[in-house]
Design goal:
3-stranded antiparallel β-sheet; binds ligand T4K; alpha/beta; globular
Length: about 375
C-alpha cells in the first residue's frame, strides 16, 4: 500500500448514513438548509468565534470575504503558501505585494511589512501555513496603525488556539478550508470567521447570487455548501478531538526520530499555542544533511512513500506570477526549494512513521 501525504478523516459509514437519513424525508438538499445552519452554529462554538459563514470551499471563502470588504489596490501577502491565497487576491482585482517570511515559523515576517506599505495598500493577507501561526500581535498592530484590513488565510489552522483563544478570532476575518486533505473536512468546503455582524448579510448574498428578498443587490456567485457536506462536517466535528490527538502522536514520533539530526530543521512547537498537527514539514539543508530535498523525495517515492513539496515553487516564482509583483522574498525562495512535507494524518501509526524515518535516515 502506498503511503500518501495525507488521508481524509471520515466518520463510520453508519454514522454518516444516520446523519443524512432525514434528507430523504425533507428532500431539502442545499440552499442553507438545517444541516448548514446546525454546522455554522457548531463551528462558531468550536472555533470560539462570533460569526461563521459556510462556503463551498476555502478558496471561494477567501474571494468572497475580500469582495465583501470591497478592497481595491495592493494587498500584502505571503509567497510561501498554496497558489489559492494569491489567486484569490488577483481574481478580486487587487495587486499582491509579497512580504518575506520568518524562517522559524514560515509565516509572514511582521518586521518586513511596513516597508511595503504605500498609499495604495488596502489590506494584509497573512497565512498560518501548516497550522504554524503568524505573529498575530505584531501583524495586528501594523494593520491597526495603518488602518488596513487584516484577513488571515487560516486554511491549515482549524482548531488552533493562541493563548486559549481560537485563531479565527484574530484580525478582521479568517478563512478556513474544509477540503478532504485538511484536519477537519466537509469533503470540499470552507468558512469565513468574522467579528462584524453587519457582514453576515453581504456574505450571505455574495455566496447566493446576490439575492436579497425579491431583488438582486450584488453580483454574487454561487458558493453555497450543500446539506450532504454539512452532514459530513457535523460527523467529523464530533470526532475532531480524537483526530487531532491521533495526529499529535504521529507528530511526536516524527519529532522523536528526527530531532537533532544534522541538516534537518523540524517545525517548531510554538509557545502559548494549542496546535492541530496539520502538516509535518522538514527543512533539509543539503550541505549539512549531505543530500538535497529532491533526492530525499525521490528515495521516499522509490519506496512508495509520497511526501510532497508543499510549498514549491514559492508563489512569486510560479509561471503565472514570476516577475510581475513587488516584494523581495529570498527566505521564502530558499525554504520552498528545501522543504519536504512528510505524510501526516490521524490514522498514521508510529510504525509507519518509523518506516518513513528509516528511509530518510538511510537505516
Ligand atoms: N489556502 C491555503 C494555504 C491552502 O493550502 C488551500 C488549499 C487553500 C487556501 C484553498 O482551500 P480549498 O479551496 O482547497 O478549500 C491539496 C488540496 O486540494 C488543497 O485543498 C490544499 N490547500 C493543498 C495544499 O493541497 P493537492 O493537489 O496537493 O491534493 P491531492 O489531490 O494531490 O491530494 C493530496 C493527498 O491527499 C493524496 O495523495 C491523498 C490524500 N487525499 C486526497 C483527496 C483528494 C485523500 O485522502 N482524500 C481525498 O479525497 O491539493
Amino acid at each position: 500500500m502506498p503511503i500518501l501525504v495525507t488521508r481524509s478523516s471520515m466518520p463510520s459509514f453508519e454514522e454518516y448514513c444516520e446523519e443524512i437519513r432525514e434528507l430523504w424525508d425533507s428532500h431539502w438538499l442545499t440552499n442553507m438548509g438545517e444541516k448548514h445552519q446546525q454546522l455554522e452554529k457548531a463551528l462558531e462554538a468550536y472555533l470560539g468565534v462570533q460569526n461563521v459563514s459556510l462556503l463551498t470551499n476555502g478558496h471561494l471563502a477567501l474571494e468572497n470575504i475580500l469582495e465583501a470588504y470591497d478592497l481595491h489596490g495592493e494587498i500584502i501577502t505571503s509567497p510561501f503558501t498554496f497558489a489559492s491565497t494569491t489567486h484569490a487576491i488577483v481574481r478580486c482585482g487587487c495587486t499582491p505585494v509579497f512580504c518575506d517570511i520568518d524562517p522559524g515559523t514560515f509565516t509572514m515576517d511582521p518586521a518586513k511589512i511596513e516597508a511595503l506599505i504605500t498609499e495604495k495598500t488596502a489590506a494584509i493577507v497573512p497565512v498560518h501555513v501548516y497550522g504554524s501561526i503568524c505573529d498575530v500581535d505584531a501583524i495586528g498592530a501594523v494593520a491597526q496603525k495603518h488602518g488596513l484590513k487584516l484577513v488571515y488565510d487560516a486554511a491549515h489552522a482549524f482548531g488552533v488556539k493562541y493563548r486559549g483563544k481560537g485563531i479565527g478570532s484574530f484580525g478582521d476575518a479568517s478563512m478556513f478550508s474544509f477540503h478532504a486533505t485538511k484536519v477537519f473536512n466537509t469533503i470540499e468546503g470552507g468558512a469565513i470567521a468574522f467579528h462584524d455582524e453587519s457582514l453576515r448579510e453581504p456574505l450571505h448574498e455574495l455566496k447566493n447570487f446576490g439575492l436579497h428578498g425579491e431583488d438582486v443587490t450584488a453580483y454574487g456567485g454561487n458558493a453555497k455548501m450543500d446539506e450532504f457536506r454539512a452532514a459530513m462536517g457535523i460527523c467529523n466535528l464530533r470526532n475532531i478531538e480524537q483526530c487531532i490527538a491521533a495526529r499529535g502522536q504521529a507528530f511526536a514520533r516524527y519529532h522523536e526520530r528526527l530531532s537533532g539530526v544534522p541538516g534537518l530543521t523540524l517545525i517548531k512547537e510554538q509557545q502559548d499555542v494549542t496546535p492541530n498537527y496539520a502538516y509535518y514539514p522538514v527543512l533539509i539543508d543539503p550541505e549539512t544533511f549531505g543530500e538535497d530535498r529532491d533526492s530525499v523525495f525521490d528515495r521516499l517515492k522509490a519506496q512508495d512513500i509520497y511526501a510532497r513539496k508543499y510549498f514549491y515553487p514559492a508563489i512569486n516564482e510560479m509561471a503565472c506570477y514570476q516577475g510581475q509583483f513587488r516584494g523581495e522574498t529570498p527566505i521564502a525562495a530558499r525554504i520552498s526549494r528545501n522543504i519536504l512535507t512528510l505524510p501526516m494524518y490521524a490514522e498514521l501509526t508510529p510504525e509507519t512513521v518509523d518506516t518513513i524515518c528509516d528511509v530518510i535516515l538511510r537505516k
